[in-house]
Amino acid sequence: MRNQDVTKTLTSTLAPEAMEALHDLGKIADGRGVGAFVVGGVVRDALMKRPCEDLDIVVEDDAIDFAEAAARELEGHVKKHRRFGTAILVLGRAVKVDIATSRSESYARPGALPDVAPDPIELDLKRRDFTLNAMAVRINADRFGELLDPVGGRADLKTGVLRVLHKHSFEDDPTRVLRCVRFSARFSFKLDPLTEKLLQDAVEHDLISTVSGERIMNEIRLILSEDEIWLPLKQLDSLGVLPSIHPNWHLPENAPSLFSKLPAIMKSPIGSIRSATLWHTRFLAAVSALSISDAGALLNRLRSGATLRNLIDELARFEVTARGRLESENELSRSDLYDALAPLSPETLAVVLASAGSIASGRVTLYLSELESVRPILGGSDLIRLGLEEGTHLGEVLADLRRACLDGFVTSKTEELEFVRRAIRDLDVENKR
Ligand code: ATP
Predict the structure, then answer these.
(1) Hey, whose CA ends up nearest to atom 8 of ligand 1?
(2) Which of 72, 84, 315, 379 lies 20 to 30 Å from 24, alpha-carbon distance?
(3) Average pLDDT by consecutive 10-residue portion of the chain (433 residues)?
(4) pTM for this model (two decimals)
């Protein structure tokens, strides 16, 4: 591909400010006498005519020194990661550039972090995961747009094939198993036969067990942040990747229906589901068949914090205490419906809605669209002014008042005042006994 054609392709997929940044960074590299390249996903996406936001740059230079020089010249800000020798350069409001030193990597053992050494761009590209991610475009001014494609990434893009660079790729870094499933699903690419065999071998030999929980979790988060997640999740399950992370991790039996309903729920969320974190919701759905103790062990393995743990506990409690009432044809008052669903966070509500039968689905929708925002006119301070002391009674009377509002027993401020005064009288009588 000619340099000007590559430049045209980049121009059509990157924002004008990003394109300008590439030219500016290329000139700075020229001033320092070093090679500079845009690499990886940016090049892949440009050749696929897919829009791309963040820039990955590799320089044949010290990345942190380069980023600092660029920040001075272009009035940007730098965030340095000394441990990894990388930097993030922020230019204006719209452009974020990840800058790394061109390097080669070697692996002491499967799953270990690599030993790295500065090396020319050709070797940097050969340490990458798949051919389609192993391309670079030079941004130095006099050769801007020169495509480097040492392992045939462009040909694989054209034929829709995902291919590792060598037969030890999954051994070197077993997180590539998860990346493989993610990219093949995202682009609907097929695996080349050798890559498929190597992937299966990697799963059979349980290479994933050698990877730290944080790195697996990071890849799971990326998969769960894709637009389409059903296909990759199904593949992870059928390939045996989920059980290699925890032996009892399989998708729930209702997964096809759950994951077919979840997208619409998250795309046009109602009520508090609007504030649900998408990947947490999807994670909760994906582990919803695990027992509490298996889910706990899985989260320990993934070194996950309290947020996901709380969601899993919440859903489990709901299943035991409230699911039956919600799905049953028996009448359920509005206040009982409120009490069943009010303890649930947005993510859990989304999963409950996606897994609900028709009766429960109507009830959850009623809760989200109407009941959860019902508030009495009187608040805690009004009740104190009416003579209640702060403490448990105050909370109980407020909850009773809300139930009365929900069930339509009180419909005005006068009726609320009457309700509270009566409650206080009843409490006085009780105290005197
Ligand atoms: P996305 O569109 O999901 O951001 P990306 O290709 O930009 O995809 P990143 O995770 O940002 O993915 O990685 C940037 C580049 O770094 C990749 O294109 C690939 O060349 C390389 N890379 C990332 N992770 C690995 C890995 N585990 N092994 C080898 N190369 C990797």
Answers:
(1) 41
(2) 84
(3) 95 94 97 97 96 92 96 95 91 92 86 83 95 98 97 97 97 96 97 97 95 96 96 95 95 96 96 97 96 94 94 95 95 96 97 96 97 94 88 89 96 95 85 71
(4) 0.91
